[in-house]
Amino acid sequence: MKSNNDFDPNFISRKSFLRLLGAASSFFLIHKNAAGALAETSGADDFPPFIPREGANKPIGVPKGIMPGRVAWSWDPKAAHWNEGTGTWWDASSNDQAKIDEMISRAIHSIANESSTEKSWNALCTFFNQSTGGAAGGYGRGEKIAIKVNLNNDRTSYDDTPWINTSPQVVNAVIRNLVRGAGVREEDITVFDSSRYITPHFYDYVHGAFPGVVFVDGYGGLPGRNKATWTPDRISYAVKTQCGTSVPTCVVEAKYLINIYAAKGHPSTGVTLSGKNHYGCIDGREHSYIKVKEKGYDHYNPLVDLMGHKDLGGKTILNVCDMLYGCYHSDALPIKWKMTPFKNAWPSSILMSQDSVANDSVALDFLTTEFSPRTDIPTGVNVKGKKVEMTNCDAVLHEAAQAGEPPSGIVYAPNGDGLRLKSLGVHEHWNNAEEKKYSGNTGPKNGIELLLIKG
User: Fold this and answer.
1) Backbone φ and ψ of 219, nearest 5°
2) CB of 49 within 8 A of CB of 367?
């Protein structure tokens, strides 16, 4: 198996992480109370600001979903309330599970355009089956659902880390919605990150609420974790790369996939969202093709192959961007957001859509607006937590939105049948950071429609 590390960090023990967390908490309190005088900055504030190549409100691609191109933005300022001085962002005491449950429910109702959870799941499954040529109707008892989470920072051991990953509270909210709304049995749900460790804080929280749910990680080294098995030769890449062609068997056997990823920057891709989360679904990764700062626009990107593959993006019924917390770097503690409407608070939000490209486009607008211009990004909170450059970070979305005739000229046909992909969704940038309006909010429904649902 190829390397399953995105980076090559120094190993940090549990004890070291606890010391790191204490130091980080103290740093943030200093930064908060002493402004710039005592705060250390990244030294990277000379990065050029992210400027969309095509400008604002110019949709590219074909919107997807029951309500095509709709992205639900569920925001409850009281849902995420870590005080930074004690514990961690993922503690139960740092988050309001009941409010997060409600945020997920309201978002699902919005994108399905239904008034109840039961009707919403029936509509989502029926639409998916019709769109993919499956059996008519909604969810069938016994059909498997795989939930891909982003545990990228748990890649060295089973020690808990304080860095940002998918929130266990968001995962619980999605599972609770499935069990109560769609009638899915716990044993038919698999939560997985097949190239990482499922550490105690995550496992204990989710398993404690849903003991029948199956957990799959890359190692199977603690009770309750099944070691991932791989189905070989599933993916045909448009360009020869070192990316793995095997897919986790739990995904191959699933009827549906739910992609839950964290909102954060990334030193290779600028941002890491739905396509990058699929990188954890292959048995090896190569980063040379996804370094968009160097590559620029109109180049091959293997993430498009994954976003369109029949086992990955092709099975994804729901895209969930966990924005309860968010960060400027993939390996870092979350920091509070300054932009409207958060104003030095946690973003405490969920973004959800059937359209992965649309959901990523909205998340990208949030991340670039928040972090691209900031000059107060702290360092010293971990090994790699410097500000990242977000130049060209939407290049993959240009390719994905136009996957049938991409600007690179590449033939994306990842399923081994010679059939090239069609548009994977719609890409667009909002009009401005204050109003956050897309073309679907103001005119013809050929672009993104962002709907705010405030708790």
Assistant:
1) -135, -30
2) no
Q: What is the pLDDT of residue 381?
A: 53
Q: List, as one string, the DSSP characters of 117-128.
A: HHHHHHHHHHHH
In whole angstroms, give the CA distance from residue 113 to residue 157. 42
Over residues 61-68, mean pLDDT: 98
- Listed residue (450, 398, 440) closest to 423, CA to CA: 398
Provide the token pair at 242: 């070192």
Dist. CA 312–CA 135, nearest whole Å: 19
Confidence band for 42, pLDDT divided at 50, 70 and 90: very low
Between the alpha carbon of residue 393 and those of residues 70, 153, 275, 300, 389, the distances in Å are 22, 21, 12, 14, 9
More confident residue, 36 or 315: 315
Domain boundaries, the chain: 14-454
Q: State which amino acid sits at residue 124.
A: L
Contacts of residue 166, Cβ cutoff 8 Å, sequence gap at least 6: 149, 150, 151, 260, 261, 262, 322
Please give the angle made by the CA atoms of 166, 167 and 169, to the nearest 5 degrees.
145
The Cα 130–Cα 256 span in angstroms is: 13
**Backbone torsions φ then ψ of 80, nearest 5 degrees:** -110, 120
Lowest-confidence range among 96-105, 183-192, 289-298? 289-298
Does pTM top 0.85 for this prediction? yes
Distance from C-alpha of 149 to C-alpha of 277, rounded to nearest angstrom: 8
The CA distance from 271 to 104, in Å, is: 23
CA 4 centroid distance within chain: 18
Per-residue confidence (pLDDT) for residue 375, from 0 to 100 = 87
